[in-house]
Amino acid sequence: MEKTDEPCVTILFDNGEKAEFSKMYLIKHSAYFEAMFCGNFMESHSGNQITLKDINNKGFMSVIESLKHNRIVYDGLENLLNILETSQLLQFTDIIQKSIEVITEKYLFSVHAVPIFSLASTLGLQELYEKARVFILYNFKKLLVLNKNSFFELNEEDLQQLLKDNGLNIDNEIDIFDLIIEWCSKTNNYNIGYEIAVDCVDFNAMDMVQLNYSITKTNHFNLINTIRHYINYKRGHETSLNLLIKPPRCVPHVLCAIKNEEDGYAFIYRWDWVSLKFTKFLRLDPLPLYTTGYHVIVHVTFMLIEMDIFVLAGEIGYLRDTWNRSGWKYNLLSKQWKKLDGFVSSKRRHGVGHFCGNALYLIGGHSNHRCPNELIEKFLLHKSLEMDTLVRVESYRCNNFTKNVDRKYYICLNYKKQLVVITKDHNPVWYGMCPDKCNSENVKWESCSMNLKATIISAVVYLDYVYLLAYSARYMIALYCYHPTEQLCREIKRFTTIYNPYTTMCAFNINMAMVFGKNYLECHSMAHDTNTRYKTQFDSFHSNYFFSIPYY
């Protein structure tokens, strides 16, 4: 510390290190030291030396260095987390905020999420805790492979909070069971393994092989007996009365709709099951006012951090020949917008767009003077330290469809990694895109009739099938299941709602078909083959642009 005429204080740390600081400097930046030196604490009268218990010397010095440089000065994640912990305990408010910003930008949405979650829980940093929790739940399968040891550092409460969550993204409950057994072994907490396992593991979702395997992994008498109850139940020797039956795990999704407001702003609305209404979720801030025919495309994968909403294309003011050729993405975890560096699309209003893996295809729509845009543009996601954007890699001519490609007339799907375009005709046609072996600068479309005498409104891929909401010549709405391999379409359910293009809305939220009438909502779950009807009132809300997003 530089010598000044200001009163100084010597701070002693637990490791025996000590350093001298200006009292006024500490008071200026820390509410903790302000209370200590200006209040009635004994340290304000104890002379020029104090002891800081349970404060890391390196972390404290890093906080001071960060204050001097007006930015976080650190040499790795461990040091950065130490800075956050020290600044939170000693109430260096500015450093708390700055360190959280660095953590969020560089480390949170990665394999380091678990230790960040643990520290945020300990320090009571709710916003950071919640972001880390959601990221871990969604990316649990990947984190279990890439950084399994980080889970062994969690305390009992934090481990249970994660593993018992119904939104935990996991394929096999045996992975949860194994993790708990390993955690007990690593932390020497065998006595609480039973409580954690019963609270967190859905034994009913295991098969007989997994249940028998689980018995071999533990010596806990009560846990073995519990597992045996599930084995007997599956053999038909017991009723479910003796078992704890948990609801199946699933990543929660919410249905979203796009709507332009009269003031020129565009919004994403989300369906709220409490109020039974669409409520405003996100304003498309980067999009220029009065833009029409833009694309909002969701890219969600089970790779780390891939939960993005892309906003692209469109005409700024109808028929003004002013075009939005930029693109942006909104990350559902960080809740931040980012402009796509160097991204430029052709002049395109409406059309259809869809992701197949990391490839985005934009097809059809209109360009200058309402002429059809005949280009199929293919973009690839490019993410590196220098760039985070969509890069156009190919353009093809689109001469295969009888109508201008528009959301009014076509639906885009990703079926088993193949881009599919379906016509919204009374006798719909299935087009599957494939490479043209004779001309690498072009693509081929293999087409076939879907053998359906109804007009498709909405479609979704679920398991190995394509589910369709469509209306008949008499405007009766029904749910159909289409098997692309066999080219067979069968009706599953008829709805009571009569289709009206101005008042009716039809959409899928992953495995639920939803038909919105004027005064009620009809739902059919494809997963459970159940029907539900809700009385509601939509007022003037109407949209034809729907998609689903993960929503914890």
UniProtKB/TrEMBL annotation:
<dbReference type="InterPro" id="IPR011333">
    <property type="entry name" value="SKP1/BTB/POZ_sf"/>
</dbReference>
<keyword id="KW-0880">Kelch repeat</keyword>
<dbReference type="Pfam" id="PF07707">
    <property type="entry name" value="BACK"/>
</dbReference>
<feature type="domain" description="BTB">
    <location>
        <begin position="7"/>
        <end position="76"/>
    </location>
</feature>
<dbReference type="InterPro" id="IPR000210">
    <property type="entry name" value="BTB/POZ_dom"/>
</dbReference>
<protein>
    <submittedName>
        <fullName>Uncharacterized protein LOC112682470 isoform X1</fullName>
    </submittedName>
</protein>
<keyword id="KW-0677">Repeat</keyword>
<keyword id="KW-0009">Actin-binding</keyword>
<dbReference type="InterPro" id="IPR011705">
    <property type="entry name" value="BACK"/>
</dbReference>
<dbReference type="InterPro" id="IPR015915">
    <property type="entry name" value="Kelch-typ_b-propeller"/>
</dbReference>
<dbReference type="Pfam" id="PF00651">
    <property type="entry name" value="BTB"/>
</dbReference>
